[in-house]
Amino acid sequence: MAHVEAGYPAPAPVVVVHTQTTKEDDLAGPIVVFILGFFVWCVWLAGFAWIKSSNSTKRVLGILSVVFFFVYLVILVIVIAVVVSTAAAAAKAAREGTYYYTTTAY
């Protein structure tokens, strides 16, 4: 042991504790999938990998990713249906030459 001078306490022993994170504790995957899904929506489907996880945070992120995927899919189908029906109505009106003009005399 090192020499201790008078008036100074003995130094505390240094204890190094090495802990390893298990694969179950790693949240990087679900967080990356959840955030990346806002830019590339089909990535949210990868959330199925964490739905049955024993880690509650991973499970919640997996469920949210899958729910967001299906919500976005429903919105996408509705938008496409509206765009297609509007385009079809405009094309029909253009073929038939039925335009509505309003004249205003000043």
Blueprint (SSEs and pairs):
Layout: H1 28-36, H2 56-96
Describe this structure in words.
The protein has 106 residues and is an all-alpha fold. The chain is built from two helices and no strands. α1 packs parallel to α2. It is elongated, with a radius of gyration of 31 Å.
Task: Please provide a brief summary of the model.
With 106 residues, the protein is mainly alpha-helical. Helices cover 47% and strands 0% of the residues.
Helix content: 40-55%
How large, in whole angstroms, is the Cα Rg? 31 Å
Number of helices: 2
Q: How many beta-strand runs? A: 0
Secondary-structure-based class equals: mainly alpha
Share of β-strand residues: under 5%
Biggest β-sheet description: none
Shape: elongated
Secondary-structure element series: HH
Euclidean distance between termini CA atoms: 106 Å
> Quick check: average pLDDT?
84
